[in-house]
Each structure stands twice: as C-alpha cells, then as structure tokens.
Amino acid sequence: MRHYATVCKREQLPVLLASMHQHCDDFALHVLAWDYETVGNWGSYIHITTRADFIARHPDFEPSRLPGPPRSPVDTVATVRWQFFADVMAEIGQPLTTLDGDVWFFSSPEPVFAEIGRAPMAVCPHRIPPAARGLPGVTYETHWIYGEFNSGITYWADPAPLAEMAALTREWSYTEVRRHPVDGRPDFGDQGALERVARRHGAHVIAHEGFNVAPWNLHNQRLAKAVYDNAVYFGPEPVVGFHFSSLRLAPDGSAAQLANADYEVERAPGAVELIYEPYLAAMRKDRHG
Fold it and tell me: Which of 103, 105, 255, 266 has the fewest CB atoms within 10 Å, i.e. the most exposed one?
C-alpha cells in the first residue's frame, strides 16, 4: 500500500479521491481538515485529522503562536502541513507522498515511483522554460526566484528531511520573496526550505515530465490524447498529475479564472479541452451531485 497525505479544501477532497481511485494502486490518503469539519463516511482508507486534533498535539503551531509576523491563511497552511506530514510518516513508518489539494491524477504514478527507487526523498523541478525558447507564459529568468522545486508533489522515504522541513517552515513560510539571511538565495513560501532540504539530503530530482505538469511548464511539450490508450500525453510521456495552481471557481463550479494570467494557459493547444474541462466537469459533478 502507498501512503499519500494532503491538506486540501473540502470541495477538493472527493475530486482528488476520484482520480486516485481511477489511477492509483492500493493506497491510503491522510488528510488534515484545516478549515472545515469533516462530513460523510470516507472509508477505512481515508484518515482524517481535524484542526483541533492537530493543534491539541502541536499547540506551538496555533497560528497566533507561530514566529514572525502574522501569516495569511495560505501561509499558515503552507506551514502546518509539513508538521502534519511528518506526524503521518512517524505513525506509518513507511514512505509518504505529499500532494497539494489541487492536484488531479490523469494516469498511474507507478512509473514515477519506479524511477524514484530507493531515494531518501524526491522532488519535482518547476521546469519553467528559459526566455530563449520564445514560449508563451512565464520564463525561468523572471520566475527562478520562486524556487527550483515545486512543493505540490513530494516524496519522502526518510523521516529526517521531512522533520527538518517541518522545523524550517514553522520558522518562516510566507508567500513573498525574501533573501535568506544566511546564504542570500531567494525564499518563497515553503519552496525555499524545500530546496535547501533537498540539496542537503541528496533528493532525487524527478525526470518524468508528466509528473506535476502545471501552468508554469505547460508550454514545454504538446498535449495530445492517444488513440491507442485514450491517455493524455505531454510530449512523449503520459500526464500523471496536473497541478491546477491558481484555478479559481465560481459558485456554480465553472471557472472564474483558469490560472494566473501570466501563465497564458489558453495558448497551450489542448490545455482547455484535455486538462481543464475534465477537471471542471468533475468539480461541478461533485457540487451538484
């Protein structure tokens, strides 16, 4: 059994789960319900921790007790989730894959786990294209300051780096860019900490480009649906997980904003019909039964 963990919004949970049921092998999903009360019978493979339970275990993670200036709700979640993930790994004693709530599986992640092998941890690079490629959207030159690795999907087989990640993000995790007081490199949210932990612990950098496809790297390859297996491909590799970062929904479940306008996702051929429309349909179906 593979273990996954997330801190997701209430409306994201059933949609994420549906994609995991379709594409993931035997799994357990550990969820920190930070901003909502749990509702419904999720089954024995879903393990819910409430905010109250988490704070009872870690009173020093109460938002008012975190060091530094007050953190926004997003900053707070980017802080507490790493301690939650460390708790989960300590309890299960097995490798853990962490997910943002806005990740959706399009195919099996097993080829990625085979690539990771016995590495102590694994991370996904942002893969932001350089300006020299002349692609739409953001460029490496303008966005490298947000970190080499994206925290939307990470893999941990060694509890030590995950515990270090929890300690670093409690100390500082804000959605602003600062220069680190020791090495001067940029820190953004929890991704500056992730970069430091990954380098110190020899993290495997995932090569599979279909894992954690996102608005900032969507223009790197062409999207296409294969006739022979009906899978969506990103260049030569199937899309495993898409990260719907900055997607905003209207009350009816339609898209109020597909992504940050700087990403220009509508200019990526196939992005709307092959990626966003299926996800939006799943979100609407859950909202309306």
Answer: 266
Take residue 268 and report the two structure tokens written for it: 């990526």
At position 90, the amino acid (one-letter code) is A
Q: For 83-95, what is the HEC assignment?
A: HHHHHHHHHHCCC
Calpha distance 192→185 (Å, rounded)? 8
Burial of 183 per CB tally in 10 Å (0-12, 13-18, 19+): exposed
Taking each helix axis from N to C end, the angle separating 73-92 and 159-171, rounded to the nearest 10 degrees, works out to 160
DSSP letters along 113-127, please? Answer: HHHHTT-SEEEEE--
Residue type, 193: A
> What is the reported pTM?
0.96
Residues 15-43: tens digit of each pLDDT: 999 999 999 999 999 999 999 877 667 77
Q: Is 196 helix (H, G, I), strand (E, B) or coil?
A: helix
Task: Tell me the residue type at 257.
Answer: Q
Give all domains of the chain, ordered by start, each with its CATH number. Answer: 2-288 (3.90.550.10)
d(CA 84, CA 134): 41
Q: What is the CA radius of gyration of the chain?
A: 18
One-letter amino acid at 245 equals S
Q: What angle do CA 204, 206, 213 make, to 5 degrees?
A: 150
What number of CA atoms fall less than 13 Å from residue 17's CA on the CB side? 18
**Tens digit of each residue's pLDDT (9 = 90 or more) over 150-180:** 999 999 999 999 999 999 999 999 999 999 8
